[in-house]
Amino acid sequence: MNWLRVKICCISSLDEAKLAIEVGADALGLVSEMPSGPGVIDRTMIARIAAAVSPTVDTFLLTSKTDPVEIQHQFEQSGVNTLQLVDWLGTEPLRELRERCPNARLVQVVHVDSEAQIQMALDIESDVDALLLDSGKTKASPRELGGTGRTHDWLISEQIRRAVSVPVFLAGGLSETNVSDAIQSVNPHGVDLCSSVRTSGSLDARKISAFFKTVSPFRVDRPSNP
Predict the structure, then answer these.
(1) What is the pLDDT of residues 51-77, one digit of tens each?
(2) How far apart are CA 45 and CA 32, in angstroms?
(3) Cα 22 to Cα 26, 33, 54, 144, distances in angstroms
(4) DSSP code at position 2
(5) What are the extents of the domains in the chain?
(6) Which pTM value belongs to this model?
(7) Which end of the chain is more exposed for a tag (fewer CB within 10 A), N or C?
(8) What are the CA-CA distances from residue 114 to residues 12, 137, 140, 155, 173 (Å)?
């Protein structure tokens, strides 16, 4: 059985980072400026958290920017090892970003609302290290680029996962109550969650422990370099 990676997003403090890692998180999501959604922290705090985290835990900078130059500046200031691109960049900007940030892992978010996203994912798979399938509404006002707490059509997500050759993370409304069904439906490389393990906006030790207990059957063969 493959090791299911778990990314805890919207980490807002060193204490939250410590709690997430203690219960088993493989990756942390650090949210920069967004048009909407939870978990935004300033660049100083992002850099503090990234610097404090062991290299065995991946740190994802969530950015809504689409200009490779601006994203490069964010990356260089943050100290993270992964860029999560919550808005759509497309092939040429992704290739420019790869040249500007050769040490960054690039994860493009695909907001799944129709089968059109299957081709979108195929178009850019060779330019990224992974895809993250989420439930945002890019045409809403304000735009929703993550952290919605909503699920999407996992049948489409499963089609994307089968179609592409890069790892796929599944996000969007995942919780203790539905994550097993989500994993069995999509068979993702990893899952990503935020709101379902929080109470009044803060990471909840009971909820996050319950979530990890639920996904433990999918995490029995831990790799040496997770």
Answers:
(1) 999 999 999 999 999 999 999 999 999
(2) 10
(3) 10, 27, 12, 30
(4) P
(5) 5-218
(6) 0.94
(7) N
(8) 32, 12, 16, 10, 17
- At residue 184, φ and ψ (nearest 5 deg) are -70, -30
* Domain range 5-218, CATH class: alpha beta
Tell me the Ramachandran region of residue 173: left when phi exceeds 0, alpha when psi lies from -120 to 50, beta otherwise. Answer: left
User: Cα–Cα distance between 168 and 127 in angstroms, integer?
Assistant: 14
- Sequence-ordered list of residues with C-beta below 8 angstroms from that of 204, at least 6 positions apart, any chain: 197, 198
Tens of pLDDT, residue by residue over 136-167, are 787 777 777 887 778 999 999 999 999 999 99
User: In the structure, what pLDDT confidence band is assigned to residue 226 with cuts at 50, 70 and 90?
Assistant: very low
CA neighbor of 63 nearest in space, from 95, 97, 96, 86 = 86
